[in-house]
User: Which sequence fits this backbone?
C-alpha cells in the first residue's frame, strides 16, 4: 500500500484540518482563547519563568510525554486508552533498579523488554481476542499492582552505588530526560508517517473492518501498537528510577491520567485513526504547564487531579461537538 492511496489526513497526521462550518470555527476560537488564557496565567504567576520552575516543567513534560507518546499508539489503533501504563512505568523502574547491579546496558534492555512484554500481553487480548481495551487495562492494572506488591512486599529497590549516573547527565547540553523525550517523539513520528506499520495503524484505527477487507492483519497491528506503548512507558520508568535512584510503585502514580490528558489535549481523536506524536508533545507540554502553575499557586495534588480531569472532560466535549459537525 502506497502513500498515494491514503487520504491526506493519514499521510500528514500532524496537520489539523481547518473547519469550514460556523460551529467548527467557534470550536477553534474556544481552543485559541483557552491557550491565550493559559499563557496569560503563566505570565502573571510569580516564579513561573525562574530556572527552577522551567527545569521542573521540562522534566515533567519529558516523563509525561514519553508515556503520552506510547498512549498515542494505543489511541490511534482505535482502542481508546490504557489505565495500566502508570503501573507499567513503576514496575519497569523497579526491574531496572533490580537488574542495575549487572550493568547499565543490561538493566536498560531488560526493563524495556519487561515493559513491552506487559503491554504486549494486553495487546494480544485486545487484538486477537477482541477484548474490551478498557476492561483489559483495568484488569492489567490490578494484576500488575498485586503481583508487584507481592514480590516486593511493598518495598522500594535501592541499589548500591550510582551506576545510572549517566542517565542523570546531559546530552549536548540537554537534560537526559528531555533528550530522550525529543528522540522518542522524532522516532515515533517517523514510524507513524513514513513506515508501513504507521500507515496501517491509522487505517486500523479508522476502520477495523475496512482494514481487514483491505488484506491487513489488524490484530497484529494492534499488538504492535501496545508493544510500542510499553517501550515508551518503560523508557519513562527507567529515566524516573535513575533520577530518584530508586524503584517503587509510587513512581508512576497518576501518569496514566496525565498521559491520557496530553494525548487528548494534543488533538488525537479518542475514536482512533487521527493524531500524531507531535500533537502529543504539544499536549504533554500544556498539561505540564497546568501542573506547574497549580503547584506554584499552592494547590494540593487532589486539586491538580481535579483540574486535569476538568480539562480532559472539556476536551472530550469539544471533540464530540467537532465530530458531530
Assistant:
Amino acid at each position: 500500500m502506497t502513500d498515494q492511496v491514503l487520504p491526506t489526513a493519514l499521510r500528514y497526521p500532524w496537520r489539523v484540518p481547518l473547519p469550514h462550518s460556523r460551529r467548527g470555527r467557534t470550536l477553534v476560537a474556544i481552543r485559541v482563547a483557552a491557550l491565550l488564557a493559559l499563557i496569560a496565567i503563566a505570565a502573571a504567576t510569580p516564579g513561573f519563568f525562574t530556572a527552577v520552575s522551567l527545569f521542573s516543567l521540562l522534566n515533567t513534560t519529558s516523563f509525561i510525554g514519553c508515556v503520552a507518546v506510547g498512549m498515542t499508539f494505543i489511541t490511534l489503533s482505535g482502542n481508546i486508552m490504557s489505565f495500566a501504563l502508570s503501573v507499567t512505568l513503576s514496575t519497569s523502574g523497579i526491574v531496572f533498579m533490580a537488574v542495575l547491579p549487572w550493568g547499565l546496558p543490561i538493566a536498560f534492555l531488560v526493563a524495556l523488554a519487561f515493559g513491552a512484554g506487559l503491554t504486549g500481553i494486553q495487546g494480544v487480548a485486545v487484538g486477537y481476542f477482541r477484548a474490551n481495551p478498557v476492561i483489559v487495562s483495568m484488569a492489567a492494572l490490578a494484576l500488575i499492582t498485586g503481583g508487584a506488591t507481592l514480590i516486593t512486599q511493598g518495598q522500594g529497590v535501592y541499589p548500591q552505588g550510582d551506576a545510572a549516573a549517566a542517565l542523570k547527565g546531559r546530552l549536548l547540553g540537554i537534560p537526559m530526560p528531555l533528550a530522550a523525550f525529543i528522540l522518542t517523539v522524532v522516532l515515533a513520528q517517523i514510524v507513524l508517517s513514513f513506515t508501513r506499520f504507521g500507515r496501517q495503524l491509522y487505517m486500523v484505527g479508522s476502520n477495523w473492518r475496512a482494514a481487514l477487507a483491505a488484506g491487513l492483519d489488524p490484530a497484529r497491528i494492534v499488538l504492535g501498537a501496545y508493544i510500542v506503548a510499553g517501550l515508551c512507558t518503560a523508557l519513562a520508568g527507567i529515566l524516573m528510577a535513575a533520577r530518584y535512584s530508586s524503584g517503587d510503585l509510587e513512581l508512576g502514580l497518576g501518569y496514566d491520567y496525565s498521559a491520557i490528558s496530553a494525548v487528548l489535549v494534543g488533538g488525537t481523536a479518542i475514536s482512533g485513526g487521527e493524531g500524531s506524536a507531535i500533537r502529543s508533545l504539544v499536549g504533554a507540554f500544556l498539561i505540564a504547564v497546568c501542573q506547574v502553575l497549580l503547584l506554584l499557586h499552592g494547590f494540593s495534588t487532589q486539586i491538580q487531579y481535579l483540574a486535569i480531569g476538568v480539562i480532559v472532560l472539556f476536551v472530550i466535549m469539544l471533540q464530540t461537538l467537532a465530530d458531530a459537525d
